[in-house]
Records
---
Amino acid sequence: MITGIKRDHQRFKQIVKGKIKQNLKKYMTQGEIIGRQGKDYVRIPVHQIDLPHFRFGQRQSGGVGSGDGQPGTSLGQEGEQNGQKAGSSEGEHTLDVEVTLQELAEMLAQELELPRIQPKGQGSLSSQKNKYTGIHNVGPNSLRHLKRTYREALKRQIISGLYDPKNPVIVPIKRDFRFRTWKNIQKPQNNALIVYMMDVSGSMGDEQKEIVRTESFWIDTWIRSNYKDIDIRYIIHDAAAREVDENTFYHTRESGGTLISSAYKLCLDLISKEYPIDEWNIYVFHFSDGDNWSAEDTKLCVDLLKADLVPKCNLFCYGQVESRYGSGQFIKDLMENFQEEGRLVTSKIENKEAIYRSLKEFLGKGK
């Protein structure tokens, strides 16, 4: 039974979630909630939500209609009391609200109108499922097997001579009861792999990396909501590429040039060796400022994408993060060569405000 207090608390939680939905676009462009992420939830600072409460005035301070008054007289307390002046600005009211990542993903889907992802293949991840495999003479009434129970009752009555074909009344007794039995089996689940690649050459600064970090958080949140579990791999590159951990991915900065094909070769090698495409749903996200070493290397990238990478992926996304030092040419080359390819998606990310649009461009395909 739900008490009045629990009902009020649930209603307040719904109000808070409504406030989060209302301001979700603002949260999507800020990186502050990433540091508040737990395993299954995230803490979101929600402003200007006050719990309703009674406020009492000073005793013996008079009330409405007491004493003489003049037009324009203030009805509140004196503006200056005990040498302190009343403030003229509002106080900051912040409430940290815990929201599960699943709830956050649902809000994201509603805000961006995202279609559900349609997984492919069956993988090695599994969940337990009960399967009825036999019959036993003991068990709960909810698992009683009626057909087998009446069969046992009929056999008993025939053997004992109690069965009358002219008046076939079958009445089971306790020893006739039969019950279904079951065992736990492993049911395969779809696997998902996310590969993040990022240009860490000198033209990619801290601001660009923060944009990538924020957008990656929301990508993770959405893809996790569609799969039981995921693998995440990180690749950084300048003139050469290497696989790194998450912390190194977001905090490394090199001063060399940019050779994008080095990252694509490493990504392809990783997928080919460890992630069979008939068992894994593969999502690749590459972020760069669009400044590649040469037109020859760009041609090599296009060939790698057409022949191997894109056919192996559910989705290959290229996000071009604007930098004052980058040429921005690479996205133009991709758009020119992949106009009809639905699994390759490009997006320009000029600043944090563009993350909202970029997420919809990347995730709105339902791949």
---
Amino acid sequence: MRSLKWVGSSLKDLTQFPCEVQQEMGYALYVAQMGGMYIHTKPFKGCGAGVYEIVSDHNKNTYRSVYVVNIGHTVYVLHAFQKKSKVGIKTPQEEVNIIKDRLKRLKASLSKN
């Protein structure tokens, strides 16, 4: 089983989600730790291989968590957020920027060690 680590404010952000969403995302991350992929998980485009997005819909709101699995033997949760875009299904650019920045910092931090 892979270990699980939280990057930035991802854990704090996830704890602000409704309980049902927290439970679903927690289970999806457990599946990732076990080497699988939960049914509501898909590759996150634009950040390379090994980056995935969990999508959870609850009370007409959409919540997402993004994690990476191809760095060592750990699942790193990069970001958790509520999608607030009113147009289309595309992830808002500010959220993409946070994900890319955290991934870049994570890789830099791990390469120093």
---
Amino acid sequence: MERIDSDKGRFREIVRGRIRRNLKKYISSGELIGKQGNDIVSVPVPQIDLPRFKFGKRDNGGVGQGEGDPGDQVAQGDGQGQGSGKGQAGDNPGEHALEVEVTLDELAQILGEELELPKVEPKGQKRIESFERKYTGVRPVGPNSLRSFKRTYREALRRQIVSGTYDPRNPIVVPIKHDMRFRSFKEEVKPRHNAVIIYMMDVSGSMGDEQKEIVRVETFWIDTWLRSQYKGIESRYIIHDASAREVDRDTFFKTKESGGTMISSAYRKCWEIMKADYPSGEWNIYPFHFSDGDNWSADDTMQCVKLLRDDIIPAANVFCYGQVESPYGSGQFIKDLRVHFRSDDQVITSEIKNKDAIVKSIKDFLGKGK
């Protein structure tokens, strides 16, 4: 068993190394999202085969063997090292990908190591007390549900050997009440901080499927990291065009509208949710907004600035705005935020030009440990 555990441990380390080397590719492609279970993700890694020698028949020819004179060509081609390209289909198997299951906590740990993400420092003061039962030893009294068969049998066997009643030819061990042993435990109180992620996304006509796919991939990794930092984290979803409404996660990524864009409607809805359900002194609050940077008017942008400055930012751990590049978006909103919140380190902005930029954007948002 020790040998198996050792080999299993070495295999897990090899798999972790493969995942770490290919992490940026996994993030950019988004292929892990569809393979997610409850707390498990299936990760495709190249199949790992052990090398072995294979002996062929002797006198088969080859380089330096068989007929021919020095200077003759080894293979016939077009004179430039290229063959004709003709031939029959092969019957050998190709390369295979191995599906390896890792937990979301393991994936978050690899993400943190690869992107050098600091641990999050909780802000909210309220903590939920959870009780964890830890077994610490055995005792001679207790309920039957906690009876330890192994320790009970050992005590009965020891008693029979000492008393001379144990017969090796007829090894029957019958425990008596004095032999009974029960597992003992103590309950540890473990506090955990409350946290909520509020996702907002522009679903107006200028946000196409490609832009929403980028948001979908990025939110998966943001979720994975923050859930590893907090236990029991909640998520809320808001979509907006000229008006905003709260939806479930599935609707969040599938809705497409054709109207205009008023970003202040999303911030107003966000503040309503925060004020009603998540008091800032008790909760760690993470609002994330994704848009292509278009807004209806400069007046609405100023309303956004006021809502952020007066309400949302003071109550949140950090406010994150990700601008997804779109051929139809002006990209102006991120410039306005940077002008008005230039010296505010609670406002983090990130430009996401394509899927390859997701990795940098994740580090922009999570790299401060707030």
---
Amino acid sequence: MKIEVKVPVVGESITEVTIAQWLKQDGDTVEMDEVICELESDKATFELNAEKAGTLSIVAGEGDTLEVGQLVCYIDAEGAAEHPAEDESQAAAEEPAKPAEGKAVEMRVPEVGESITEVTLGAWLKEEGDVVEFEEIIAEIESDKATFELPADVSGKLERVAGEGETLEIGALICRILPAAGRDSHKTAVQKDVSDVAKADKVDSHATGHPSPAAAKILSEKGISPGELSGTGVGGRITKEDAMKAQKPVPSANLPKAVAYQERTTDKPVAPVSSAERPEERKRMSNLRKTVARRLVNVKNETAMLTTFNEVDMKPVMDLRKLYKESFKEKYEVNLGFMSFFTKACTIALQEWPAVNAQIDGDEIVYSKFCDISIAVSAPKGLVVPVIRNAEKLSFQEIEKEVVRLAGKARENKLSIPEMTGGTFTITNGGIFGSMLSTPIINAPQSAILGMHNIVERPVAVNGQVEIRPIMYVALSYDHRIIDGRESVSFLKRVKELLEDPARMLLGV
């Protein structure tokens, strides 16, 4: 019986892939789950596994671009069943010794969110061979939105499979946990298998020095010959990443001219600067940082973003805080900060100017009747934006407690996906870092963001007299596709009025 092997779904936004390399030849006998070829998308490289054991019949060639669901090859399962006894005995002979007290438990990447298809192994918290207990945290995995802890499924000895910094798809193998007996022999067998594979990879094959289709295109654009590079892919193949890192060497013929020109224009030759005097450090971008970068660029490219400014006399708020700060903390066990005043003022203004609380969904504008306020927090691994739900219904103390709770979880990298999604409006406070003025970028798909800044004493005119007042500049960046100038300016003016007369927030006027 022939089994059709088609291009699998490899990502939510990926519609086509390219056959990068066949690892098996037409007519070869393949085993179930054996990797038969590599597929490349515009984002990553994927391995295609045999769905059944049998004889391979290739349909698509290397370099062909196929849509998701399109036929790649056939596997004739009948050919594999002719000598079942022989195959079973051979498999039994090749299989490494298993533990006496049960099989090793494989731990795979769990599902961590509806739209998350891959994660990065951030850090191992246990070493190779360590004995771990049931539900003990053994590793941290990172997605482009949050960091998650990986607990042990059973007690036993840890055998790592994936390394730190490695990107894994959902369901990919991370490690194994071995039972008490027979672990050492099993570990030795696994290490021997890995060693054999490593040695085999070093042997030159037809792929050695040959670029993948995507890599060939990049090298052609750079004017670099594939023969100048050594590939890091399977069998020495030049991958897309190799091509992107490649730099065209400077022709040595230019060197004598440069030296001759230097001798004519200076009395003393310039001493070459050693690399030790100009140190550099390279660090891999986390998934969170890459996602933030991508989203911010998309916002700049896809929205008609403008920023309007105003200034707020913070003396009334500061006087009110000074007067009731101690009694507020004593009663509610939380400090009375500026964020609760700004959050409360924004929720009132958002209900008066609903376009600022809206967002575009296709050809429609969605007006939210609630205020889910996103608060930008600088976490150790990057900027995160947890959400205060239904902030329009919360009191000052409830807002302050929620800010403290979410900020604490953000700094410990323990925010969940639901706690960071679904906001309708964002507040960011660059003033805590000393920023005087900025133009914050909209947190898509929202349509506006309020930027707070530092408070500086400035001379201002009050009732015809010059006085020194604590002034804060505030900025509202907004999407002009939804929000008109009248609405944006009026919203920011309303926030200013509420902060300069806090009693308005209590009286609702």
